[in-house]
Amino acid sequence: MYQTVKGTYDLLEKDMARFNMLEDLFRHFLSLYGYAEIKTPVFEYTGVFQKENDTSDMVTKEMYTFSPNGKDSLTLRPEGTAGVIRSFVENKMYARPELPVKLGYIEEMFRHERPQKGRQRQFTQMGIECLGEKDPLIDAEVIALGYTYIRTLGLESVKVLINSLGDAESRLRYRERLTEYFAPHKEELCIDCQNRLEKNPLRILDCKIDRGSELVANAPKMELTEGSQKYFDDVKHYLDLLGIPYEIDDRLVRGLDYYTDTVFEVVSTNEASGSQATIFGGGRYDDLVKEMGGPQMSGIGFAIGVERLMILAEAEGIFEEYAPELDCYVINLNPEPDYAFAIAEELRNNSFTTEMDYYGRSLKAQFRSSERKNTRFVLIIGEDEVREDTVTIKDTLTKAQETLKKEELVERLDQLLEDYYE
Ligand code: HAM
C-alpha cells in the first residue's frame, strides 16, 4: 500500500472546504488593506534562502535541497518572504511610482522538521509583505491586518506578542553584551548555541533547548538606541489607537535571521494547540532587499500557518456555522431520468447548486441523500409531474410543499429564497 510521506497529509473534502473558507476570508482581508496576491515558484536557487552566516534552524537544518543536474542547487521554499523579495527585485518593483508595494501569498512551504501536531514537513502559509517604505504606521497596520483577520474568524484565545530587535547599532551593541555574558558559560550551552555564540548570539534566546535555562533567563536585555526606541513607541501608540491588545515580550527574537526593529507573533492560548502555539509571526527587515540585490529598502510582513489556524479554529468550534448547504436535490421517481436530468441542469444554469439521484433508488433512499447533503429545496418528479410538465417543491426549512409549472420553477425558487431572507 502506498502512503503519504511522513509529515505530509491529504486534505479531504471537509478539510478542504474549511481551508478554502480560511483562505477566502484572508483574500478578502488582502483587498481590504490594499494587498494584491502573487505566486512565486515552489523551488528557487538555494541562495535565495541561504545567506552567508545564516544561523536559523530553518536554513541550516531543515531545507529540502536537491540538484537535478548535478550543477544547480535548488531548494523547495521553506518560507515565503525570500521568494517574494527575489521577485520584488527581479521584477524591479522597487522602481514603481507607488510605494510601498503590498503583496500577499497563499503557498505551500517545505521544512524537514520532526513532525508533530501543528508541525508538518509540507504546510501552508498565508502571508503578506509590505515593501519599500519604513514607517511605524505600516508596522501597526500589518499587525492590525493579521489580528483583525483572526478576530473576524471568531477566534478568542489568541494574544499578540511584540518586541523590537532594534536597528543595526542596537543589535551590534546587544550582540557584544550577549557574547560577553555567554562566553564564560559556553560549555553550558547546547552544541548549536555554542556555534550561535560566534555567529549570532541573539538566536540563543530563541533556542528550543536552552530557552528554558536559568542562564538564558538571566541574560541581559536589549537596550535600544534612541531612534529605535522612538520607532517602537510609535508602533505601540498606533496599536493602542486601533485598540489592538498586545503584550511586550522582550525575549521574542523569532526563528529567522533577517529581522530588524519590530517583531511580533500571534500565539494561541488554547491548549488544543499544544506546543505549536504560534499561529503566525513576522516582523520588519531593513536589509533583506539590499542583500538580494535591490536598493536599501525596508519591508515588513508576516505569515500565518494555515494548519495551526485550522487546529485552533476547530477547537473553538468556528466551523460549525459554515456547514455547506445544497440548494436543490432532484428526486426522480420515474424509470426514465430524462425529465429530472434536464431540470437539474437548468437549475445549475441558473446558479442553484443541484444534485440528483442517478440510480432510480426508492423515495426514502433519495430523501435520505438530500438530508445528508443538507439540502434546502427537495424537488420531486413523479409520474404526474412528467405528464403535466410540473415540479413539486418541498422547502425543507418551512416544510411547505407546492406543485407548479416547470417554467415557473426558477423564478419561484428565487422568490422563496428572497422571502426567507427578508
Ligand atoms: P515563521 O515563524 O518561520 O515565519 O513561520 C510562520 C508561521 O508558519 C508559523 O507561525 C507557523 O504557524 C507556520 N509554520 C512554520 N513552520 C511550520 C511547520 N513545520 N508546520 C506547520 N506550520 C508551520 C516565516 O516563515 C516568515 N517568512 C514570516 C514573515 C513574513 N516574516 C516577514 N514576513
What characteristics describe this protein?
16 strands; 422 residues; alpha+beta; elongated; five-stranded mixed β-sheet; binds histidyl-adenosine monophosphate; 14 helices; 22% strand
What does this structure look like?
This protein is of the alpha+beta class. It is 36% helix and 22% strand. It is built from 14 helices and 16 strands. The chain has helices at residues 13-32, 57-61, 81-90, 136-153, 168-182, 191-199, 214-217, 226-241, 288-291, 306-315, 338-349, 363-372, 383-388, 409-421; strands spanning 36-37, 43-45, 65-66, 74-76, 101-110, 122-131, 158-164, 247-248, 260-268, 278-285, 299-305, 326-332, 354-356, 375-381, 390-395, 401-405. Strands 1-5-6-11-10-9-7-8 form an 8-stranded mixed sheet, with helices on both faces. It has a 5-stranded mixed sheet with strand order 13-12-14-15-16, with helices on both faces. Helix 11 (338-349) links the parallel strand 12 and strand 13 (354-356). The radius of gyration is 28 Å and the shape is elongated. The protein starts with 12 loop residues before the first helix and ends with a helix. The model has no long low-confidence stretch (mean pLDDT 94). The structure holds histidyl-adenosine monophosphate (HAM). Histidyl-adenosine monophosphate is lined by residues 79-81, 111, 113, 118-120, 123, 125, 127, 129, 255-256, 278-283, 301-303, 305, 307-308.
